[in-house]
Structures are given as structure tokens and as C-alpha cells.
């Protein structure tokens, strides 16, 4: 009986062996096939599993400009700008890797190519356009003047003779220079905007000029009260653009295409609402 069973098993052995070999061959064929197509448009959550790695896009920002960018709990920048570039990245199937660079270093990083893209509430303006390329505008802004609540300042011209804090190399500095003159000792330049606002709170400067979205955010969210913002009637509208190395047309085209996509599919509006509610 026992013997009999064993014989029966032996009879099946060659068949099992053949099946096993066929299985191995099939598996081998599978791996030699061309790599899996790089995930569909909406694969951001799925990450890449192996072979078809997404194109990495290195984003630099000065993550000290909320609500556009600030450092998240893990140091990774978060904010309106980061959501926008991530959504553009999703439309292009990119792996968007954002990091805080600071403001001046960001321009350097784009020039030297250590970052691919600058997203940092950067106003498109002629002197920058000579050195960098910018996407289509993605956000409208203007300068505001932040002063103590009891200040008599109602327009930019009233800043004459006052100490004005600005972030160095921004359009806030441009406006301060227009009023006080280039090189004026009354213009205090800071490496970032929070440092300027801190000095305003501490009364070391009399006013700070910066973008409307940011100063309004300070008014709303800062624990320090007793300040207001003033809009000069003559301030020029500004438009933010996404910055790339001069001549990087391919990347710029993809950014503009992605921007169009997220404006059409409602993603842009969704992000806008998240940060600015129904304003505008
Ligand atoms: N929009 C202004 C400019 O382009 C200020 C931008 C500052 N951005 C920042 N992340 N600190 O000059």
C-alpha cells in the first residue's frame, strides 16, 4: 500500500518538473519585458515602485514667507506655493522635492543649477527677467506698509524720515528706495521678512514693507497686536512667477502647461481657497 502510493507520486514527478520549468520561463520572460509604463497622471500617492522613476524636480524657496511658504514640522517647506508646485508636478508626473534655501541663495541656486525651480512668491520684474526665466503669472500681489496702529503714515511718501524695514532684494526694498532713496541709512535690510517684522514689533524700525498676503497674515495670526497695514494708492500690481534657469525652455513649458491644467481642473482654486478663503 505504502509502496504503491510512492510509485504513484513518482509517476507525477516529470509532469511537476515540466510545470515548474514552464513557470520559471514565464517569470523570466516577464522581467525581460520593457519597464512598466511610468504611472498615470494621478499617481502621486502611489510613489514609484521600482524601474520607472519619476523625474526629480528640485525646488528651492525661502520658507519664511507664510502663507506662501514656511518650514513644516519636519523642516520641509509647506504653504500655498508648495501646494501649487506639487500640483503642477502631479500634472507632469514629477517627484517634487522642495527645500528651504533662503532668499538670496535661491537666486544663486537657480543660476548654478543646484535647484531646478524657484517658487517663493517671486515677483516677475524686468531686472530679474534678464537673468532668469519666469512662468506665466500665478498670483497677484502688491506692497503693503505695516506700521503701529497709531502711526500717521497713510501713503509711501509719509515714510520719509522714518526707519523702514524690508527683506533685502525684494520689491519691498524697491518701494523703500523709491521713497527714501537708494542707499538711505533709514532703510534696514534683513535677510528674511520675519526678522524685519520682529524689529517692527520691538520698535527698532517704524515700518515694514512687504507683500500684502504676508503682512495680512501677520495681522491675522501673530500674537503681537497693535499694528495695521496701509496701502499706498499708487503701488503697482505685482505678479508672482515660477523661476527657472535662463534658457530652460523645456522645463518652463512643462510648468506653464501644468499651471494651465490645474487652473482648468479646479485644483488651483481648491488650493487658493485653502489659504485665502473666498477673498478676491
Ligand atoms: N514678492 C516679493 C519679491 O519678489 C517678495 C518675495 C519674498 N519671498 C520670500 N519667500 N521671502 O521681491
In short:
By secondary structure, this protein is an alpha/beta fold. The protein is built from nine helices and 15 strands.
Structure description:
With about 280 residues, the protein is α/β, with parallel strands linked by helices. The chain has two domains: about 55-140 and about 240-275, D-Maltodextrin-Binding Protein, domain 2; about 145-235, D-Maltodextrin-Binding Protein, domain 2 (3-Layer(aba) Sandwich). It has nine helices and 15 strands. It has helices at about 1-30, 80-90, 105-110, 125-130, 170-180, 195-200, 210-220, 250-265, 265-275, and strands at about 55-60, 65, 70, 75-80, 95-100, 115-120, 130-135, 140, 145-150, 165, 185-190, 205-210, 225-230, 240, 245. The strands form four sheets. Strands 5-1-6-15-7 form a five-stranded mixed β-sheet, with helices on both faces. Strands 11-10-12-9-13 form a five-stranded mixed β-sheet, with helices on both faces. It has a three-stranded antiparallel β-sheet with strand order 2-3-4, covered by helices on one side. Helix 5 links the parallel strand 10 and strand 11 (about 185-190). The relative contact order is 0.15. Residues about 1-5 and about 30-45 have low confidence and may be disordered. The structure holds arginine. Arginine (ARG) binds near residues 103, 123 and 167. Arginine binds near residues 120, 123 and 171.
Amino acid at each position: 500500500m505504502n509502496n504503491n502510493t510512492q510509485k504513484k507520486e513518482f509517476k507525477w514527478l516529470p509532469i511537476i518538473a515540466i510545470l515548474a520549468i514552464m513557470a520559471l520561463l514565464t517569470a523570466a520572460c516577464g522581467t525581460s519585458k520593457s519597464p512598466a509604463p511610468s504611472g498615470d497622471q494621478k499617481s502621486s500617492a502611489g510613489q514609484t515602485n521600482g524601474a520607472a522613476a519619476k523625474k526629480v524636480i528640485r525646488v528651492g524657496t525661502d520658507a519664511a514667507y507664510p502663507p506662501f511658504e514656511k518650514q513644516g514640522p519636519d523642516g520641509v517647506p509647506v504653504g500655498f506655493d508648495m501646494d501649487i508646485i506639487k500640483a503642477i508636478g502631479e500634472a507632469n508626473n514629477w517627484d517634487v522635492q522642495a527645500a528651504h534655501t533662503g532668499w538670496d541663495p535661491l537666486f544663486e541656486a537657480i543660476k548654478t543649477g543646484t535647484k531646478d525651480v524657484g517658487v517663493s512668491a517671486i515677483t516677475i520684474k524686468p531686472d530679474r527677467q534678464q537673468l532668469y526665466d519666469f512662468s506665466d503669472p500665478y498670483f497677484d500681489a502688491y506692497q503693503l506698509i505695516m506700521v503701529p496702529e497709531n502711526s500717521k503714515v497713510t501713503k509711501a511718501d509719509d515714510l520719509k524720515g522714518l526707519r523702514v524695514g524690508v527683506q533685502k532684494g525684494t520689491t519691498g526694498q524697491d518701494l523703500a528706495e523709491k521713497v527714501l532713496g537708494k542707499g538711505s541709512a533709514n532703510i534696514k535690510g534683513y535677510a528674511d521678512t520675519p526678522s524685519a517684522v520682529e524689529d517692527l514689533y520691538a520698535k527698532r524700525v517704524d515700518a515694514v514693507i512687504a507683500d500684502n498676503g504676508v503682512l495680512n497674515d501677520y495681522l491675522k495670526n501673530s500674537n503681537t497686536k497693535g499694528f495695521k497695514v496701509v496701502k499706498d494708492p499708487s503701488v503697482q500690481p505685482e505678479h508672482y512667477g515660477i523661476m527657472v534657469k535662463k534658457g530652460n525652455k523645456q522645463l518652463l513649458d512643462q510648468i506653464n502647461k501644468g499651471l494651465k491644467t490645474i487652473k482648468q481642473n479646479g485644483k488651483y482654486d481648491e488650493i487658493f481657497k485653502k489659504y485665502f478663503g473666498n477673498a478676491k
